[in-house]
Amino acid sequence: DQQVKQNSPSLSVQEGRISILNCDYTNSMFDYFLWYKKYPAEGPTFLISISSIKDKNEDGRFTVFLNKSAKHLSLHIVPSQPGDSAVYFCAASPSNDYKLSFGAGTTVTVRA
Amino acid sequence: DTGVSQNPRHKITKRGQNVTFRCDPISEHNRLYWYRQTLGQGPEFLTYFQNEAQLEKSRLLSDRFSAERPKGSFSTLEIQRTEQGDSAMYLCASSSKTGPVPSEQYFGPGTRLTVT
What we know:
The complex is a heterodimer. Chain A is mostly beta strands. Chain A has strands spanning 4-5, 10-14, 19-25, 32-38, 45-51, 56-59, 62-67, 72-77, 86-93, 101-102, 106-111. By secondary structure, chain B is mostly beta strands. Chain B is built from no helices and eleven strands. In chain B, the strands form two sheets. In chain B, strands 2, 4, 5, 6, 9, 10 and 11 form a seven-stranded mixed beta sheet that branches. In chain B, strands 1-3-8-7 form a four-stranded antiparallel beta sheet, with no helix packed on it. The model of chain B has no long low-confidence stretch (mean pLDDT 91).
């Protein structure tokens, strides 16, 4: 049972424009959410997180939005850069737990 | 800070053989996790250690799998009598003891296992 879903397997965006990645979850116990970025032949790299007490968290070019009622979160990257081309994973866990549940990932390609 | 390291990076083995992977976490991290990732999927949780204590094992971890973390430092993941379905990327992650539970986990580069 896939509790975290990333329904778009791929996204292509022009350099300088905004990338929007979406993630839906089904487990109402999830209240801590993270985004990871993964390059080929490397492990996932932590990008940004948000807890359920917030609806937005920003770190430089990366902003995560959380809509608890819709069980939906999104990652905005602006402006997109060629180095942002990678696979992005959404992950979630309950606050009293430690294991992360991951989505299947979205492959982002930033075109010059 | 040298990050999380994993060895070997690649392992090819024949079905029925045993394999062992090693993970060295970030030195001050007391929590260590193992995940498995197959093609087109995100990482799936396998097991978790706090110091040397293994606190949870996923149902994905059959009795052919065993993990240890002696002295709360490095960890090993052993797979006995490998099957072709064990072919995957095995990822190790660690997190800080000073962080909240949960806290961001830092991943190693993974060990890619191919069972022929």
